[in-house]
Design brief:
With 327 residues, this protein is α/β, with parallel strands linked by helices. The chain has eleven helices and nine strands. It has one domain: NAD(P)-binding Rossmann-like Domain (Rossmann fold). The longest helix has 40 residues, at 287-326. The structure holds NADP nicotinamide-adenine-dinucleotide phosphate (NAP). The site of NADP nicotinamide-adenine-dinucleotide phosphate (NAP) has 30 residues, from helix 2, helix 5, strand 7 and helix 7. Belongs to the short-chain dehydrogenases/reductases (SDR) family.
């Protein structure tokens, strides 16, 4: 009995020491990013998650600019925000693949406090069925386009003085945390954002700029509805295990995460488990989350192995059935 009590005491001392050590070492420190009366610039802000983020930011008192290609969709977005909040937003028509056009829009919009790089395209297909143009399109819009937006906004964001902490947030995807069948190009474009974000955070932390990576699950946006009609059956089966969410809920969680200055923002428990399993060298500002990562890293790896095993079983079963039908 005495031995058990001593062991328990050592365990408690270990946990408390670990918490203290983590509280001392986690970097970069979490900061609050104010939204009210600040300039929030959202790419892909005319539809889906971007539009819902624009609605929320306006409702919370921010001055909002949105950028996308279609002027019709931008006008419609402006009208819907005006109708809901009685506040106007600035709209900019540009393709993120065109650096000069993006730079012009960013310059015209004025100094940015919170940059949300949200534009994205997804065409779910097995790689052997995908054209080179489709692969290039996704990499160009999702990854190179994100570089274009950040590189256009960064000089003025770094030069801002006395405006408080700033944020550069990138909308990734759960397909940017785990490779998913049918998403070779899309996953690659979103995994790329992880490297961009980690390195960028080190480069801009001394300018009080905080990088956030957002990982939404399937979300009921116009883009998702379109993509769902054409995505491979297996992609739908595998993605179904994570469930889908409403655009408004996702936008709220994302904006709250940005305001809390978190590096990683996930939208539900599966995304959270994935974030722990794939934490690697990601910065972590919260010692509580760092504690969970340290304590349960092995366990989440086990969960991820179980999930992978289910996915491969589904693929094996599906291909056996297909082969059976063909022969
Ligand atoms: N919906 C989901 O299930 C889901 C899940 C995880 C992650 N995500 C990510 O969340 C982000 C938003 O997705 P969503 O579902 O809200 O998409 P969406 O409804 O299709 O909206 C996409 C937005 O991006 C703009 N856009 C697309 N290509 C562009 C380009 N080349 N230059 C400038 N703007 C461009 C679109 O406007 P124009 O077409 O007029 O340019 C639109 O405003 C994307 O990064 C996506 O990868 C979505």
């Amino acid at each position: 009995m005495a031995a058990i009590s001593t062991l328990f005491l050592f365990f408690i001392i270990f946990l408390v020491s670990l918490l203290i050590i983590l509280a001392l070492i986690v970097r970069p420190r979490s900061v609050k990013i104010p939204i009210k009366s600040r300039h929030v610039f959202i790419t892909g802000g005319s539809s889906g998650i971007g539009l819902a983020l624009a609605h929320r930011a306006v409702a919370e008192g921010a001055r909002v600019s949105i950028l996308a290609r279609s002027t019709e969709k931008l006008d419609e977005a402006r009208r819907s925000i005006q109708l809901a909040t009685c506040v106007g937003v600035a709209t900019f028509s540009a393709d993120v693949r065109d650096f000069d056009a993006v730079s012009k829009a960013v310059d015209e919009s004025g100094p940015i406090d919170v940059l949300i790089v949200n534009q994205g395209v997804f065409i779910g297909k097995e790689l052997e069925k995908q054209s080179h143009e489709e692969v290039k399109f996704m990499i160009d819009v999702n990854l190179v386009g994100s570089f274009n937006v950040i590189m256009a906004a960064l000089p003025a964001m770094k030069a801002r003085e006395g405006r408080g902490p700033a944020s550069i947030s990138l909308v990734s995807s759960q397909a940017g945390q785990a490779g998913i069948y049918g998403y070779t190009a899309y996953s690659a474009s979103k995994f790329g954002l992880q490297g961009l974000a980690q390195a960028l955070q080190q480069e801009v932390i001394s300018d009080d700029i905080h990088v956030t990576l957002l990982f939404p699950p399937d979300t009921d946006t116009p883009g998702y509805e379109e993509e769902q009609k054409k995505r491979p059956e297996l992609t739908s089966i595998i993605a179904a295990s994570s469930g889908s969410m409403k655009t408004k809920e996702v936008a709220k969680i994302c904006l709250d995460g940005i305001k809390a200055g978190k590096f990683t923002v996930t939208c539900h428990y599966i995304g959270f488990l994935l974030s722990i399993a794939s934490a690697g060298m990601s910065p972590q500002g919260s010692f509580w989350v760092a504690f969970i990562e340290v304590m349960f890293g092995g366990l989440t790896r086990l969960v991820s192995l179980v999930v992978q095993s289910q996915w491969y079983k589904t693929i094996e079963k599906w291909s056996t059935t297909k082969k059976g039908i063909r022969s």
